[in-house]
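Late entry, magnesium ion complex.
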Amino acid sequence: MAHDMQRVRESDGRMLASSGAGSTEVGRSGAMLRVSGLRKSYGEIEALRGVDLEVAAGEIVALLGPNGAGKTTLVSIVAGLRRADAGVVEVDGLDARRRSAEVRRRIGLAPQDTGIYPVVSVRRNLLLFGELAGLGRAELRRRIDEVAEALDIGELLDRQAGKLSGGQKRRVHTAIALLHRPALLLLDEATTGADVETRGHILELVRQLAAEGSAVLYSTHYLAEVEALGSAVAILDHGQVIARGDVGDLIGAHAVPVVELAFDGEVPAISSHGGATVEGNRLRLPTRDPAATLVEVVPQVPPGVLSSVEIIRPNLEAVYLALTGRRYDEADREGAREEATERKGRSVVAK
Ligand SMILES: Nc1ncnc2c1ncn2[C@@H]1O[C@H](COP(=O)(O)OP(=O)(O)OP(=O)(O)O)[C@@H](O)[C@H]1O
Ligand SMILES: [Mg+2]
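Prediction complete; structure with ligand written out below:
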């Protein structure tokens, strides 16, 4: 995957739309999705500033990045829902703009926002989207049964789609995306707000589809989920891909443990070995030896001002911190903590 990282960096973002020869090139390199030099602005806001990204057939890539990083914009352009200002999207070697009908049939999308017709039933939604994806009647019925069982939405099929709960809608979005076993599956925060069981179902389906050879690009804020899935990662920040690789490789390359001290009020003056940063009322000390750093630093803290001490181990969150200089925002960290608790086997299952 280090190879992939290199490729992303080397891409000059000025690749031209593929001709026949270009298509062969893509086919040979095994990329199901190839995005290069993608730009998109909304008025003054530059949402994408030259995004280069490849996802191979059979590969799962988690798309990470803070709110507003451009994830939904990227996914929407790939799916043909929005138009880029510049750059190229190729799916299975086909230029997405010129061959949009063929490309669309290869893609399954579970959008972050509403992706269903609210006034008709779930079953009707599945039928409509399945037909759009080109499935024949008999196959469509069979697939609806399969995805309904896999995502446990059998009992929801005859309910009005617009009246489902948030988590139930997520499952329906995912079901629609998976119906035609797309060669490229795009999930935009498919697991956000879903209960633990649903997240498990969705991730299992993602794994299965990838094992059958589909490429998967999924955005998420649950870092622990990405670690559990062991997928590759692309970090999008301010409209650019700033890192791409396997979780393990990125952790090895970028992450150092960080000792974080939080204070009631201002961070007091404390001397330490280099690299300390202050954000708000938190002091962060990157260190290869957290215990030694604590021994060095804690005696310098005036009494009564320290509110918490945390050691951030080299994990995906530390990679994120090292690359962006920020931690995931509070809401995201809640999600990550919940995951960590689940993995320790404590019961936090949402009712
Ligand atoms: N339709 C739009 N009109 C104007 N600005 C937009 C529109 N859609 C997105 N933006 C802006 O573009 C930037 C990227 O937004 P985008 O939705 O792609 O981010 P995101 O990474 O998906 O964020 P989140 O994690 O919150 O879903 C943001 O600054 C956002 O406010
Ligand atoms: Mg989004």
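The radius of gyration is 22 Å. Will revisit in the morning.
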